[in-house]
Design goal:
binds pyridoxal-5'-phosphate, 12 helices, Aspartate Aminotransferase, domain 1, eight-stranded mixed β-sheet, Aspartate Aminotransferase, domain 2, alpha/beta, four-stranded antiparallel β-sheet, 2 domains, 15 strands, about 375 residues, globular
């Protein structure tokens, strides 16, 4: 059996044609017709008015936070179980972070813990949610709490392109939302991101900030702090080619999750639960070892590696990160935080769209061998 990766980027076969058209037209700069078209395509796909393409998902989150009004004197309440790129941009600004525990049903931000955090930090004016591995957070109660506590919602939908909550796309709930086109995501631009919103003026300003905030003057004049965060036309061309295959890719990711769930039935492990309120794009399929079973996901990771199968630990919660040790962490069960438990029992399994059924059956067999030893 050949090496089975966690998830890598795959070409659709149309990329060269799109990139060639960028070269042929002479647009190789961080702007151009492919950038405009990719923004339009994604805004339409999600069902929002407008978008601004950026050089990364992290840059998109940074600009979304700035546009939302986060300043160094602010407090931002954030998902805890996520990739560091969700909350690092809060630190770029110099604002304070408060992390919120997850719940057992979705592994996403726990609504009761969020309310506790909002009560404990009445100064907070911003809530930043990340949808874990493509699964939507429970947006209705989160939005209600944002309203009740006068907070602006920012959505990190980096992993959740094409996922839905009650029929509506992830990335359409926040005042500003960010997605990522990093190499391992559902579609890639070889590195890139996008801010999406219904606020047309806000997106215009984000575009201005992403291109060095140059005032409309005959000389180089800046009244605001600018960034070099714009996506290049070449990258956007790749993204447009990738987008032609998006439905197929999501269908494959979902089929991978279903096969794991079926294959691991009756074992000492189970898959990250999928909430009935939405449809995850199943970007990464994650397994949990049942409570009380004396097996470690790190040992499983080593065992899989010995069989040339790549897996990865679940995101280590932010409140457990040395860098964020001084940030507050709020949980309704502080003695036994849910996401510490998920982290201690979870592992991300190969979720590559080119993994065939035979290869996945092999992965499942190796997992079963490990669990029964
Ligand atoms: C949840 C989350 N947020 C943010 C990012 C950052 O995106 P990028 O790598 O495009 O900067 C990623 C992925 O890389 C992510 O998984």
């Amino acid at each position: 059996m050949k090496h089975i990766p966690l998830a890598i980027s795959h070409l659709t076969g149309k990329e060269e044609e799109y990139v060639k058209s960028a070269f042929d037209s002479g647009w190789v700069a961080p702007l151009g017709p492919h950038v405009d078209a990719l923004e339009e395509t994604l805004a339409k796909f999600l069902g929002v008015k407008c978008a601004s393409a950026t050089s990364s998902g992290t840059a998109a989150i940074h600009l979304a936070l700035i546009q939302a009004g986060v300043t160094p004197s602010d407090t931002v309440i954030s998902s805890d179980m996520t990739f560091a790129a969700t909350c690092n941009p809060v630190k770029y600004i110099g604002a304070k972070l408060v992390f919120v525990d997850s719940n057992e049903e979705t592994f996403n931000m726990d609504v009761k813990s969020l309310e506790l955090a909002l009560q404990k930090h009445p100064e907070a004016r911003f809530v930043l949610v990340a949808h874990l591995y493509g699964q939507s957070c429970d947006m209705d109660p989160i939005m209600e709490l944002c309203k009740k506590y006068h907070c602006t919602l920012i959505e990190d939908a980096a992993e959740a392109l094409g996922s839905t909550y009650k029929g509506k796309m992830c990335g359409t709930f926040g005042k500003y939302s960010a997605i990522s086109f990093n190499g391992n995501k559902i579609i890639t631009t070889s590195g890139g991101g996008m801010v999406l919103s219904n606020d047309e003026e806000g997106i215009k300003h984000i575009r201005f900030l992403s291109t060095q905030a140059r005032d409309p003057a005959p000389w180089y004049q800046h009244s605001e702090l600018g960034y070099n965060y714009r996506m290049s036309n070449i990258c956007a061309a790749i993204g447009r080619a990738q987008f032609t295959d998006i439905e197929n890719r999501i269908a494959k990711k979902r089929a991978i999750y279903r096969r794991y769930a079926e294959g691991l039935k009756g074992t000492d492990a189970y898959m990250m639960p999928l909430a009935s309120y939405g449809e995850s794009n199943c970007w990464l399929s994650a397994l949990l070892i049942k409570k009380g079973v004396n097996k470690s996901p790190l040992d499983l990771m080593t065992y899989l590696k010995e069989h040339d199968i790549e897996s990865r630990p679940i995101w280590k919660p932010m409140h457990m990160q040395p860098y964020y040790k001084d940030s507050d962490f709020v949980s309704i069960s502080p003695e036994h935080p849910m996401d510490e438990d998920i982290f201690a029992r979870g592992l991300c399994l190969p979720s590559d769209i080119m993994m065939n059924v035979e290869e996945q059956d092999y992965v499942i067999k190796v997992i079963k061998d490990f669990l029964s030893k």
